[in-house]
Amino acid sequence: MDLLDAVARQARRTPDAVALTDHRGARLTYAGLQARARAAAGSLTALGVRPGDRVGLVLPRTVELFVLELAVLLAGGCFTPLDPDQPPDRLRLLLERAAVAVLLTDDAEPARDVGVRAVRPGALPPADPAAPCPRDARPEDPAYCLFTSGSTGTPVGTLISRAALDVYVAAYARLVGASPRERGAQIGSPGFDVTIDELWPFLTTGASVHLASDADRASPRALVNWLRAHRITQTYIPPLLLESVFSLDGAELGDVRLIRTGGERLAAYPPPGFPSRVLNEYGPTETVAGAVFCDVSAWSDRSVLPPIGRPLPHIRARVRDRAGRPVAPGTPGELYLGGPTVGIGYLGDDERTARRFVEVDGERCFRTGDLVRELPSGDLEFLRRLDDQVQLLGKRVELGEAESAAGAHPAVRRAAVAAPVDAAGRAERLVCFVEWRPGHDAAGTEGLRDHLRRTLPPHMVPSEVHTVDRLPTTPSGKVDRRALLAARPAAGYPPPTPEALVTVWERVLGVSGLTADADFFLHGGDSARAVSAVTEIGLRLGVQVTARDVFVHPTPARLAERLTEETR
């Protein structure tokens, strides 16, 4: 595997160069990275891991997590990272669907309930680091499996081959100019495909990768300070956070020469004099990660939202109508992506794989479900989704999965989930509409919310729940989400006081003694907790806010003032 050979070459050429550091103070050279990963690979082989086997990783974002990802690849396996901050019930569901051969984790409890063999990383059986690593994994074997939200009510795992990962890592390294001079940042959550961008193109080219703490990656000011202090030269920043960085007064980014962004629509351009180049990235998990890129710093026509740009050299982008026929330039159509980085398919879901991975002009392509059009420049402009999928805080959300979770509550007869959007067409929040079973009513909202919080990750828990007598339908018989959003009642409560918001801050952050001037992000808040705060404000205080409101107005006093102004 080219990736493995490249990391090994770096260990031989510059053994003492720093490969990885993290917020806990861990520091690993290339020689140390290679030695530890080889030893762990031998341990996995001793545990019975064979080429193609999935190895689950439920671990925090530390150097150890990425050492083990490399070890799984060396053993010929398929690393399957799962975010440990998800609710236990969801982790159990993911472990069931992943069917891992072994799980590496510090918390074995979720694994016990599903009969998965769990091993603490520190308890791996000893192995000879000088022993040769297995080399019988084939290029077409899976390198990793990432789970995303599923439209049928359960998450889906996307399998990416070792050959696809090799091609992507080399192409991405060329795109961003990765080299031993670079100091890359790692801020993405485990299980999020942006970690592929943040890690492997840099470790294969001799750069160093630095892991930010949750506190440092949570707020615009904290992130800017961390980037400057660690002399980072390039980083990924999600659009919401990046737009907040654009608006900071006197933001000093130090050595940062390139910022990559993506995961949801970027709705702003860098302001005049912004010191770093900004690269807008588009790409589904099913094609590894980024497939189409635009240098928005150099984009001249700022009367339109930033486009997604042009494909990488190995990607063929096709725009097709509903029948799969090519459309003329400038005509909206669905984006198909072909090339060697198209994924293997969905784990255990042949029907969905056949529907989304199709052959076009003799080439295997992925149907993205995104409506785009080709601009006169040849760049692609994203228009909207063609289905019920939305991106919320950069993470894929299938409304059907949230609906399925709500419908599983015993008091709910039927449920629908919709997502109001902002001026740029981006989802702001999730809103749940419920038909209650006989004998139940809106008094059960609190129980439903608790059920959803145990079942779904924070960003998928609706921030509003409304009772309806009957869910409206379209002429084709589908739930009419537009009608539900149009008829949803306006907030019937006065703007919350700073004191009420302080209570929300304390509940979500798990601290006490906060004041009205307490900055959400300086007291342990992050994007996931911002979503939880939105949910608490909506359900407990009856006020509709967005995660962006929390980012822009991070203190109870400032948010209360903004909400008061809105109602005048």
What's the quick description here?
The protein is an alpha/beta fold and 568 residues long. The protein has 17 helices and 26 strands.
Key words describing this protein structure:
5-stranded mixed sheet; globular; 17 helices; 568 residues; alpha/beta; 5-stranded antiparallel sheet
Q: How is the biggest beta sheet arranged?
A: 5 strands, mixed
Number of H/I helices: 17
Question: How does the overall form come out from the CA principal axes?
Answer: globular
Which strand-content bin applies to the residues? 15-25%
Span between termini: 62 Å
- Arrangement of strands in the largest sheet: 11-12-13-14-15
> What is the alpha-carbon Rg in Å?
23 Å
- In helices, the fraction of residues equals 25-40%
Name the structural class. Answer: alpha/beta
Q: Based on the structure, what is the oligomeric state of the protein chains?
A: single chain
Q: SSE layout and pairings?
A:
Elements: H1 2-13, E1 18-21, E2 27-29, H2 30-46, E3 54-58, H3 63-74, E4 78-81, H4 88-98, E5 102-105, H5 109-114, E6 118-119, E7 142-148, E8 156-161, H6 162-176, E9 183-186, H7 194-203, E10 208-211, H8 220-229, E11 234-236, H9 239-247, E12 258-262, E13 277-282, E14 292-295, E15 310-311, E16 316-320, E17 333-338, E18 345-346, H10 350-356, E19 357-360, E20 363-374, E21 380-385, E22 389-392, E23 395-398, H11 399-407, E24 412-418, E25 431-436, H12 445-455, E26 464-467, H13 481-487, H14 498-509, H15 527-541, H16 547-552, H17 556-566
Parallel strand pairs: 1-10, 3-4, 3-5, 5-6, 9-10, 11-12, 12-13, 25-26
Antiparallel strand pairs: 1-2, 7-8, 8-18, 13-14, 14-15, 16-17, 17-20, 19-20, 20-21, 22-23, 24-25
